[in-house]
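Entry 14. Ran structure prediction on the chain below.
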Amino acid sequence: MKKILTGIVAFFSISAFASTFYVQSNVSVSGEGQTVLEAQNNAVAEGQKEAFIRLMKKIAPTIDMTEFEMLDVTAFVQDVSLSDEKVSASTYKGNLSVRFKSEPIYELLKSKNEPFLTSLPEQMLLIPVFEENGNTVVFDKTNPILTYFHLQQPTFDFFPLKVVSADENKIAEASKVWQEGLFEKHSSFLNEYEVTKALVFHVKKANDVYEVKTFVLPKNVDVEASVEFQVMDDREDINLVMKDLVQDAFLNMEKKWIYLTTKNVAPVVRYQLLTPVSKVSELKKIKDKINQLNFVEQIEIKGFKNKMLIVEMAFKGSTDELQQKLLLNGMALSPYLSDEENNVYLLTFVNDDLNLNQKQTAVEASNEDALNQDVF
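Output, structure tokens:
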């Protein structure tokens, strides 16, 4: 029986744009052509499209993928690498890895007004640490974490892992590196597995209580992921226990990553703003001030009605965000005649540094329907 003793507490420190690239690996490709090179080029072209769609499904699952079917993805590709290649006179098969440029993908997804993930976890080498009764084993065939990964070979698409093989020489080599405390500096060992980071999966067993912790090495990276939780489990089959512990940890790491790296693209909202003007001579000063607002999507002076300058503004974000930005520019926003539902607001200058008598003008204008007056 399994019982969670403490809720999962996950701490992530994630740079908003942690990686310059999105990487998609292990894309099986095949192609045909009159020559091997043509077959390879055809295979890579199709593989890049497949990798791009696979990436979109991960980072922007709410977007209709049919929008990308006819898209030329080459503009988003930084580079590709191939492995496990098999060729004949006119056919090509291989395994493709693609690095996609993040910035153009950000711009593409922002134009869709749908949320998306700003980064994905890199592939990491698993470091299994199992502790019981004061004894700790890491790369050892008696380690139940390592045994579970060797026997079951679980895969986690969101957190791709590499696992030290069951080969005794490989285990001995990894054990030596770990015992000497060289993992953070021993880049050659990580390079052998074609990774730059390692994920430590630590389980401490005390009677029927299992404490689970995960963290990333080296620690001075843009992304640091850790999960901590306790579980009581009295089952004798430790492989089943490991299965649940591993799945629970990776599921919650994925949830937290998605939560903390999702960028919500705010919709563009159009506002009609009325700015009180007591004298025609003040119009130019007010127009110049409004036209200096560089945080709006669009701004247009529509005209002058009954002592009010009419401004149409398009802003990406909430009304609260717009109000805050306007305040930083010395302007205040308030509903005009309680017409907040139609996004009609009164725009005034907080410090009145233009020497405007806006309060009195606004009172005078409110006695008439400024919105229904002809522009002149």
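The chain is about 30% helix and 35% strand. Will compare against last week's run tomorrow.
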